[in-house]
Description:
Layout: E1 4-8, H1 14-23, H2 29-33, E2 46-51, E3 54-68, E4 71-83, H3 92-106, E5 111-116, H4 123-129, E6 133-144, E7 154-158, H5 165-179, E8 194-199, E9 202-212, E10 215-223, H6 232-242, E11 248-253, H7 258-261, E12 269-279, H8 282-288, H9 290-300, E13 305-311, E14 314-321, E15 324-328, E16 335-339, H10 343-348, H11 354-360, E17 363-366, H12 372-379, H13 387-391
Parallel strand pairs: 4-5, 10-11, 13-16
Antiparallel strand pairs: 1-2, 2-3, 3-4, 5-12, 6-11, 6-12, 7-8, 8-9, 9-10, 13-14, 14-15, 16-17
Helix pairs in contact: 9-12
Amino acid sequence: MTSLQFRFWQIGDDTIVAPWLEQMGWMKPVRYAAKFNDVGLQEESIVIAEVDGVPVGHSMVALRTVRHGESLLRVANIGQVIVHSDNRMSGVGSALINRSMELSRRLDASLIWLVAHKEKGPAFDMYERRGFRVLERRLSATVDVGSLPINQKLQVRIADNGNSSDIARLRKRLATKMTGVPAQHYDVSDGGNWMSVLRDSGIVAAAFVENTQGLPTLKKLLFDDSEDPNPSAAISAVVREANSEASEFRVHGNPASLLVRNTPGFPWKVVPGEHMCTLVSLRGVFEQLKTYLTERAMELGFKSSRLALQAGNEVIGIQLTNNTVTLSDPLQRDSRIEFKNGVFPRLLLGIKDWEKELSDGSVVFYAGEMLVNDAFNWLFQFQYMDATQISGW
Ligand SMILES: CC(C)(COP(=O)(O)OP(=O)(O)OC[C@H]1O[C@@H](n2cnc3c(N)ncnc32)[C@H](O)[C@@H]1OP(=O)(O)O)[C@@H](O)C(=O)NCCC(=O)NCCS
């Protein structure tokens, strides 16, 4: 009889797990070895499944915070879920994901985010059965190197343990400005493949480049659009440095990202791989957003307001009195907003537009004391939050 057990990561696991992840093409061992540079990750965030004392499965949860005004929303990123091919279809993967979801809940995450491929294996369906819904698709563009502008003033430097602080500085700047994700969650830029793009020795962009299917591929680009609104020159500098032989290269992007919006000449196409998200707790989200809601109410000149919200089986009331937001039970007279089809995380991460969602029935507004525009202006003025930035992995 075999025994299946679960435990946290321990020294020695890397030699077994890193080759699995490398074989999937997910990451190189050197990157996995640097995982605890990410302060969103601890030994207890990694679950190892063992059969008769031998590791057969792995999953991990990285905790992120997303800033909305002065509020910090906690988002968990589940990733690197893998079961050794000899041990599949016997419940190991299912137990790993359930444990990671449970851990996310214990860490007070309000949302859980991950990437899955609908076309590949049972994972996508397994996540859908657990309430995950597609947040956004992914895009890729294949571009001629020669078509890109050359900017002689840009220099490219390969990041290593000595100078990845350039990138940490850029992350911090972007975090403050755009994503609100504290930079220390992100100091994972060493471990290979990262490059910094500098002008006058100040960093303007950072890129993660890897060869995929024979083409140099820019998988991530962090760039400061106030320094350089058109990232094409930075991309060009990186591609030339990464592989001077290639005449074409590939760029990965997300539909609403600044990168895609600022490169309209690129031939962006949808590619497999979906960002998926599930709501852990509606109450949790609004507990974490109380300060933001208070700030917004003051901006909008609200004195006292009440609203009821519903997602799945959860219904909560939000009350504003004396410049303080509290959560309460809903009242009969409250205006109520119901979120369907997994749309709530998309609104929260700035991916969807509530007016469109109202018209297609994914969001339903039941009139009460509050007006529809006031309600949505109060709750949903979120900037687009690049989930790739959330992940860091
Ligand atoms: C995805 C993966 C982790 C699943 O591991 P596993 O141990 O085989 O999974 P389980 O036996 O626990 O099955 C998980 C669920 O999928 C279903 N399932 C498993 N294999 C299936 C198959 N071949 N076809 C249909 N359903 C399947 C199970 O019924 C189970 O359903 P549940 O949601 O009701 O629990 C494993 O296939 C794997 O490592 N794949 C390669 C890496 C990968 O794709 N990871 C996911 C990245 S997002």
